[in-house]
Amino acid sequence: MKFREDINALRAIAVVSVVLFHFNHEWLPGGFAGVDVFFVISGFLMTMIIVKGLEKESFSILSFYKARVRRIIPPLAVLCFVLMLLGLFLLSPIDYLNLGKHSAASLTFLSNVVYWTESNYFNPSSNEKWLLHTWSLSVEWQFYLIYPVVLVLLRKFLTLHQLKAVIAISTVLALLLSILVTMKSSSAAYFLLPTRAWQMLVGGLVFLYPLNLKANTKSPLQLIGLLLIVTSFFIFTPATPWPGYASTLPIIGTCLVLITHNNESFVVNNKLTHALGKWSYSIYLWHWPIVVAGYYFELGAYWWAVGLPLSIVLGAVSFNYIESKSLKDYRLDKIKVILRPIPFAVMSSLLGLTIFHSNGLLSRLPQKEQLLVLSAIEAKDDWFYPEPNIEIEGLEIRFIKGKSNKNILVMGASHIEQIYPYVSSLDNEYNIYFLTQSGCFVTPSMKNPKWGCGDLQNYQKLLNKIKFEKVLTSFYSFNSYLPISSSKRQTEKLIRIKEYDDFLFNLKSPNSDNKCTTLG
């Protein structure tokens, strides 16, 4: 296939949107939709490769897998290995343990399932997961494994025309499934292949049912498609149920761009989009660990000024010295090409499992510290925090029923959630209401800019509705909520401490004499 600048431009737009979103959600609140753009492109290209091969009766599943291995695994394996090497010196045993687990999951393309079982993608704790972004690679790889096998088997019984119809019907059914699951379990819908498959299948439909467009309609349609994609980056937020019906907007936009097949437009054919599109996979791989580093090492609110160019530089280096070199091996024997990256990936995966099963290489610590870490790991394994089970005045609450009509309010960020398992195991005299939001604070001026904190900051609604005998609060370091890093940092910190002091003074139900306890 002749190089398509429009597809390359879509990759550039997708990776830029995701990177900007990850560095600051306020820049592009719906930038996560860039992943959906990638999925459509993948579906389009994979369907084209498979169906053309079936038409010529020359399709080889081994060759198909070889191409996917050659492109995806080498840069990913290098990333995982580098992170595990650096983590040995920079991460705590528990964090290193998780990195090992996630590296192995990423290299076996099961990370989407692992992350689904751990937490919501948009939860602030996600900022502690160095390889969270590999969930999308796992979804794609699972699709790559299943899709060609299914089409080859169906081709034995169906004509190509019938096969196209089956793909079209499957796309509609998969979309309906995605919408239904998104309403029931947004986390499962976000991470898992069955609810993402339609996005790749719809890309396949663009190839299977091409439109003959007049030359003068291509540019306007392409522009409309690009506008739909960009619009989705601004009108959607992490609070939008995804990838249900809302995700059809960027999907339709991407399809319009693919349908027009217009390489002449300056919007898609320029040096910037050409470079970013080529480097998009490698930029995507490297940018997220850089984002996490900013959080993990508390590098300040302006870390993006270093992180953004560093993501591009590392992406370019990865493309030129890892990705492109592996792509140039296409003349080698099929089996050799598959095996060359696989030993390194297997080695890196085994290293990750070793780190995980050795509790983050715990033996590197003194004996006393090992015992402390082991106790922390055991406690973490027993921890749980359920989904909200009641709603009061629009606020989502975890409610534990007690024996009396007396009430306790537990409110704060994620740190106070740690007491839930203990509290829920008690024979409680009080009704206990948990009002928490990770990464959030209670006063608007102290709002964490990356997360919607509406429930927590509207706590007064709950106080007006219910009389609480006791209120228990806990929040993370004030430094985590300072929006800027400057010479005025200490002054601003003192102002915010005063605000929090006022909050504690006023924290009581109307006409009640409740007591407030703060956990440091």
UniProtKB/TrEMBL annotation:
InterPro entries to which the protein is assigned, alphabetical: Acyl_transf_3_dom (IPR002656), Acyltransferase_3 (IPR050879)
Transmembrane feature ranges: 7-25, 31-51, 72-91, 141-158, 165-183, 189-208, 220-236, 242-259, 279-297, 303-322, 342-362
GO biological process, one term: lipopolysaccharide biosynthetic process
GO cellular component assignments: membrane
The entry's keywords: Acyltransferase, Membrane, Transferase, Transmembrane, Transmembrane helix
Top-level lineage group: Bacteria
Domain Acyltransferase: 6-317
Listed name of the protein: Acyltransferase family protein
MF (Gene Ontology): acyltransferase activity, transferring groups other than amino-acyl groups
